[in-house]
Amino acid sequence: MLTIKKKKLLGAMLLAIMGMGYFTTMSSLDINFFLKGYVAIMPMQALALIYVGYLRWFSR
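-> structure tokens emitted (60 positions)
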């Protein structure tokens, strides 16, 4: 079995905990079903904008 470095394991655990927290928060929101779908994808959209901005900023 492959050994996983501590840094990768820590990163995976952090992402898993953040994902569980986000899922719990989204599950407990009492808002419209369609609005909940838009709110659920907002973090991915924000990360995509940050990534594109980062690429454009450092490609100059």
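The CA atoms of residues 8 and 14 lie 10 Å apart.
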